[in-house]
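Run folding on both entries below.
>entry_1
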Amino acid sequence: MGLGGAVWACVVGACVVDALVAPSPSLVRRAPGVQLARGRLLDELSTLDESAAPVAVPEEKEVLEPETLFFEGPPSWTELILPGISILTVIGIVPFAAAAARQVWVRYKITSRRISVQSGIGGDDPTQIIYPDIV
C-alpha cells in the first residue's frame, strides 16, 4: 500500500467515523408535538409581551449625607522648626522663607468627601481631590 492508498484509507475512515458519531438530521426522529427550543422560547416571549402590563418601578432617589469637615487650616507649624534652626546658617534662610510662605498662602480643607488645597499667592490656585481618585 503506497502513500496514495494510506491517504485514501484515512479519508474513507474519517467519513465512516463522522457518519457514526453525527448522524444526518434527516435520520433523527422527534416525538410528535416537540418543537425546537428556539421556537418554544420565541412563543413564550410573544405571549409574555401580549399579556404583561408594564409595571411601574418606584425610583429611589439617592440622598447624600452632608459633608463633614475634619480639618481646615494651614500646614502644621512644626514644619517651621527645622528651617528655623537652619536659619543660623546663611543657606538656611531660603528654606525658612519657603516654609513661612507655605504657612501664609496654603490652606487645607479635609472633609468626608474630598481634600481641598488652596495655594498660590492669595489662595488663587484651588485643587480638589475626591477620595475615589486617591485609591
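>entry_2
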Amino acid sequence: FLSFVRSRCVEVFAANQEDVASRMNSKKVVLNQVGIRCRFCAHIPHRERSGRSSSFPSSISRIYQSLTMMLRDHFTKCHMMPGEMKERYLCLKANASQGATDSKKYWVTSAHALGLVDSGKGIRFKLPTCGHHRACHE
C-alpha cells in the first residue's frame, strides 16, 4: 500500500511563490521548502482542491504524519483522482494492516533516498555535491 501511494498518488515538490502566497493565512511556508502533494489535483488552483491535498512537514520525521492525514482526509474525496486509481487505492487501503499505513521508517527512508534533508526552514532538497565542475569554482 505504501509503495503504491508513494509511487502513484503523491509527489514531492519545492514551494514556489504561489505556494507561499496560498499558505499566508495558515502554516507559514517559505520559498523552496519541500512539500508533498496529491499528484492528481496538483495542477488545479489550490482553492479548488479537496482538503489536505498538500502538506509541508517541518521535518523528514513528520512526513508520515502528513501522509497519514492525506490518506485519511484527501484521497477518498479527491475529485481529480481517476476512478480506476481510486478503486485500486481503496482496495489496497482496505487490505493494509495498520502498521503498513503508519510506517514512519518507510517514509524517512524514502525521503533520504530522494535526497531530502532537514533544515532550519523545513525540508529541502539536498544540494548536489560539487566535484570538479568549473562552474562551481567561478
